[in-house]
Specification:
Layout: E1 14-16, E2 20-23, E3 28-30, E4 37-38, H1 54-65, H2 70-83, E5 90-94, H3 100-109, E6 112-117, H4 120-129, E7 134-137, E8 151-157, H5 163-169, E9 170-181, H6 187-194, H7 203-210, E10 214-229, H8 230-240, H9 246-253, E11 257-271
Parallel strand pairs: 4-7, 5-6, 5-8, 6-7, 8-9
Antiparallel strand pairs: 1-2, 2-3, 9-11, 10-11
Helix pairs in contact: 1-8, 2-3
């Protein structure tokens, strides 16, 4: 995986050294002991510790390890399989979290992959468990650390999407796969604790948002419902930042067991050729 320098106005290719990355212009980025590289520039963050907290990362990983999210993984694999992307192709996951979904794609298709997240805690967790993949701390909402037309596939799960930048880094035949929470995602938890029912359909706004650069090729819904005890419900709340207020936490603690649905619209786009 060839990365590009994120120093403003540079963009030169980064060469991987033994414990760092460096570009020909002298910009240097150390590799963390766990294996990820931090390319995040000061102007591209709003706090000293941006992104998911360590607690949120650990809670999400525990849920994924228990299989909650397997329907989404299966749908992502199916979408990518339909795109017929050759093994060894360069792919990136924007907002990769702790890396479970990207790892599944790499294991299935043999991609050369990079996961990007603004949270150092997420990148560290991903790098420790999946060292064969390149893990980067960067702001995927800003300039992506890749050369023009260098990627065959970009995925984004519950993340923001910079259409112009993604179109820049995708090859002319490149594929963009998005997963966005569906109307009934966590509906039981939201109803029991927040007093909310179904959320709005976000897929329509995503399709409209990307319409100038991308053509929708395929869509599906990844849905699963599982029963959770109090510990599992607490993990869901922590990983999604729901039930954060004291009143909501108090309601959550009164629930011994609850069936909870995870539901996502999965959308496959092709880059438009002008």
């Amino acid at each position: 995986m060839i990365l590009s320098c994120t120093v403003r106005g540079c963009g030169a290719p980064l060469v991987r050294l033994e414990r760092a990355y460096a570009c020909a212009r002298g910009h240097h980025f150390d590799t963390a002991r766990s294996g990820y590289v931090n390319l995040l520039q000061v102007q591209d963050r709003r706090s000293n510790t941006p992104g998911d907290t360590r607690e949120a990362v650990e809670a999400r990983r525990a849920l994924l390890d228990e299989g909650f999210g397997s329907a989404l993984t299966a749908s992502l694999v199916e979408m990518v399989e339909h795109a017929r992307i050759p093994p060894g192709s360069l792919v990136a996951d924007l907002g990769c979290g702790e890396g479970t979904h990207l790892r599944a794609l790499v294991e299935r298709f043999g991609f050369d992959a990079c996961g990007i997240d603004i949270s150092a805690h997420a990148a560290e967790a991903a790098a420790r468990r999946h060292p064969a993949i390149t893990w980067v701390v960067a702001n995927a909402d800003r300039t992506l650390p890749f050369a023009d037309a260098s990627l065959a596939l970009v995925i984004s799960i519950d993340g923001r999407r910079g259409a112009d930048e993604i179109a820049r880094v995708l090859a002319s035949s490149g594929t963009f796969v998005i997963a966005v929470a569906a109307e009934d995602d966590l509906v039981e938890l939201r109803s029991a604790v927040l007093g909310a029912a179904h959320a709005p359909d976000r897929s329509a706004s995503v399709i409209a948002e990307l319409g100038a650069k991308f053509e929708l090729i395929e869509r599906s819904v990844a849905r699963e419902t599982r029963s959770f005890d109090a510990q599992g419900l607490s993990r869901i709340a922590t990983s999604t930042y729901r039930c954060a207020r004291e009143r909501e936490r108090s309601k959550l603690e009164q629930i011994d067991r609850l069936e909870v649905t995870s539901s996502h619209h999965v959308l496959r786009f092709q880059r438009k050729l002008r």
